[in-house]
């Protein structure tokens, strides 16, 4: 039909499908299945083997990688993570994202709105680019493994800062933070890469958090307690103010 709106793969029909399993997780799931088979078939230890098999299925589910339909307006900042909006606060950006380190201008040192998204072990853990642009910085910092829901996790936990510069020169920064269970942040991109909004840029294994730093003069369009979807939920429109107040039900 002329003028028909299609999905993000150019199709005109909507259909449900099983989400793919990201390659990063297939090896863990297959190792779990192999170990379960040895325990069940080789040792006949059903009391251990069946829970191990269930755990293997959970590992596959943890690394699921569903398709997302991404908003395309250039002034939008979309969520980089699935999860719960656990904190919205005014804070200075991390020092690693503030100044110009030769890779391009940073976020500055003045306080901005930070949106923190907590990912439980039941959420999708593939992280996506909140805007389209050029990856200017990826800075990994080792640290502790505190509960990612705590405010101080932004400064004390293992984390990775990413700075993307839009085509209009506006820098957008966000941080992947490891949590109690997470033990590795896996990047899919490197400095200098061009990324599209909603493109997969990395993952954090087994429970974590992502902080997004909105540009000055930009307020949150999401509420504390709201659930967001990576690559789909709009967190903010750059240059738009008028902070929402309320709670999600």
Q: What is the approximate shape?
A: elongated
Rg over CA atoms, rounded to whole Å, is 20 Å
Structural class: alpha+beta
Give the CATH class of the largest domain. Mainly Beta
Indicate the CATH architecture of the largest domain.
Distorted Sandwich
Sheet with the most strands, sense and barrel status: 8 strands, antiparallel
| Quaternary organisation of the protein chains | single chain
The helix content is: 10-25%
Number of domains: 2
Question: What percent of residues are in strands?
Answer: 25-35%
Subunit structure: Heterodimer of a large membrane-associated beta subunit and a small pyruvoyl-containing alpha subunit.
Modified residues (Pyruvic acid (Ser)): 208
Pathway: Phospholipid metabolism; phosphatidylethanolamine biosynthesis; phosphatidylethanolamine from CDP-diacylglycerol: step 2/2
Site (Cleavage (non-hydrolytic)): 207-208
Describe the structure.
It is a peripheral membrane protein. Its EC number is 4.1.1.65. The active site is at 208 (schiff-base intermediate with substrate). This protein is of the alpha+beta class and 249 residues long. The protein folds into 2 domains: 1-67; 76-237, Glucose Permease (Domain IIA), CATH 2.70.70. 18% of the residues lie in helices and 29% in strands. The chain is built from 4 helices and 15 strands. Helix 1 (23-42) runs antiparallel to helix 2. It is elongated and about 65 Å long. The termini are far apart.
